[in-house]
Amino acid sequence: MMGRCASPRCALAAALIAAVVAATSSSLAEATATPPLPVLPVPTAAQLRWQRREVIMFFHFGMNTFTDSEWGTGREPPAAFRPAALDASQWMDAAAAAGASLVVLVAKHHDGFCLWPSAHTAHSVRASPWRGGRGDVVREFTDAARARGLDVGIYLSPWDRHDKRYGREVAYNEYYLAQLHELLTGYGSVSEIWFDGAKGKNATNMTYHFQEWFQTVRQLQSSINIFSDDGPDLRWVGDENGSAGSTCWSTINRSKITIGEAGIEKYLNTGDPRGKDWVPPECDVSIRPGWFWHKNETAKPLPELLEVYYNSVGRNCVLLLNAPPNTTGLVDAADIARLREFRAAVTAIFGTDLAAGSAARASSERGGRFAAANVLDGRDDTYWAPAAAEAEDGGGYWIELRRPASAAARKFNVVRIQENVAMGQRVERHEVYVDGGGAAVASGTTVGHKRLHRLGAPVAGRTVRVWLASRRGPPLLSAVGLHLDPFAAGGGTM
């Protein structure tokens, strides 16, 4: 049996081996660190894909375009529908100008006139002089969208002021369901279907079979997102101004909502931290005062559109921006120019991240895969997670960016914070501090997919710390960014 080596050389070798073993064990522990449990509910893959779109487009076009109205009577003659130069590809130019990846068409509005040759009514493009009665706006729309790589959505109004079956519960619900079948089986994949409860005060009493409709939609298109006040996948934000609540949860309790019922707007606007259903909000707003084109209206100015962006995308929503084609069947050139200006402004603001090159540290880290540095990698699928033990502290969490000395003097006036919502929405309160200042430069409640804070004036600083409070599990941040908005008051220049 050999004796133990007592030489300094043996001792050094043993120390090196121990160090290697310790380092290997540590690296292995970091590499195999498990993710935290999700906080339920969480989004489906389709909901998550929708949330990351951020801006999508609405196209209101139909009989109201030719009668200069918002809500038609249902008595308009089909002959009134006669766009001389309809070009759905030009509509996609408008969508591309806004940076949209999904386009939603109003296939039938409240007047009941159908933009496709439905087999279930004579009140459609088939009875119009357009394309000699052989036209199909839905077909041209969906073909043009797919040619541009855009996904398709469809709105089919439940309220129908033309059809004689309206008011006869079974007959009308069967009629509506038959038209859903036409639209969801005849035009390829549909990513979003839009339902609403809009109805005039003196409208005929009518019970809609929403649950039957929803289940049929899901049967026909399994990966579709269904929009209504009640979801089940996407909800109305409670207004048509493009503005979510300053507190905005993606969660609600669907059992508290009746589609079309008055008094639910505030609940829809803010969501519910105790909600059992993941139904994120969509902010619908028109680029013009009206939803349909009117000769005497013009597009909202750029500052107003940017305000809409901050109050929708910047508050955990997707912005559904309407661009109504005119009586010729084209989106006005001035509207496309405004959409292009809007997109250029968003790119100018967020195309440069003034946090780039920063070092990140946090109150704690769960492990290598969940390091604080993940908030700077530009990816939605990586995130910082605090150590599990920190949840017991109760004093909140923090993450801090230390900017390079060469960048510390570059001012910013927008702070961007993003949660990894694939694991649930968690942050209930947050504050932002610069260079250890005693007063927060920004504060708020929820974060969600994206929270954007515009500061009162541009600030410079070496360190930016975000403090977070959450009782729904440790906060999981996928991004923290700093930007300069040159369009804000006192924003300076790029």
UniProtKB/TrEMBL annotation:
Q: Where is the Glycoside hydrolase family 29 N-terminal domain?
A: 79-341
Phylogenetic placement of the source organism: Eukaryota, Viridiplantae, Streptophyta, Embryophyta, Tracheophyta
Q: Which family does it belong to?
A: Belongs to the glycosyl hydrolase 29 family.
What GO cellular component entries does it have? apoplast; lysosome
Please list the GO terms describing molecular function. Answer: alpha-L-fucosidase activity
The UniProt entry's GO biological process terms, in alphabetical order, are: fucose metabolic process; glycoside catabolic process
| Subcellular location(s) of the protein | Secreted, Extracellular space, Apoplast
The protein's name: alpha-L-fucosidase
This protein's species is Oryza glaberrima
Which InterPro entries does the annotation name? Answer: Galactose-bd-like_sf (IPR008979), GH (IPR017853), Glyco_hydro_29 (IPR000933), Glyco_hydro_29_N (IPR057739)
**What is the enzyme's main class?**
hydrolase
PANTHER family given in the database record: ALPHA-L-FUCOSIDASE, ALPHA-L-FUCOSIDASE-RELATED
This entry's Enzyme Commission designation comes to 3.2.1.51
Which keywords accompany this UniProt record?
Apoplast, Glycoprotein, Glycosidase, Hydrolase, Secreted, Signal
SMART domains linked to this entry = Alpha_L_fucos (SM00812)
Q: What Gene3D superfamilies does this protein map onto?
A: Galactose-binding domain-like (2.60.120.260), Glycosidases (3.20.20.80)
Q: What is its main location?
A: secreted
For this UniProt entry, which residues form the secretion signal? 1-22
